[in-house]
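Structure ticket #2291
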Amino acid sequence: MDINLTTPALLFPAISLLLLAYTNRFLALAALIRDLHARYTTKPDSIILKQIANLRTRVILIRDMQIFGIGSLFLCVLCMFLLFAGRTLIGSYVFGVSLLLMMASLAFMIREIALSVGALNLHLSDLEHEIELHR
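Resolution: structure written out below.
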């Protein structure tokens, strides 16, 4: 396979947008954690504790998503430098590793989305009885 400077450059917009999305998810979760913590301190509830535990796991996953995404971006830049320096073979391998890191980042995102759905189900669990009564 032939690889030139434009090949890793194609990933830059995608990686940048993903990192922005990851940061936005992190900020939203941080605000939610702060809100739930305040609610729990005024009125302790086991559901709130379960939600906070779920959010803690999700924040860790987002941290890992960001680390692997940043690693992918770093290796893309390194790949471009190596290609610019005429080191095509090593640049190809570095680009391959950057793709693997991006795949790992996306895999963490899939897991975080699954936990997000679980959190919504937990949030709605207190309404299940009401939903059944209205059917």
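Closing remark: DSSP finds five helices and no strands in the chain.
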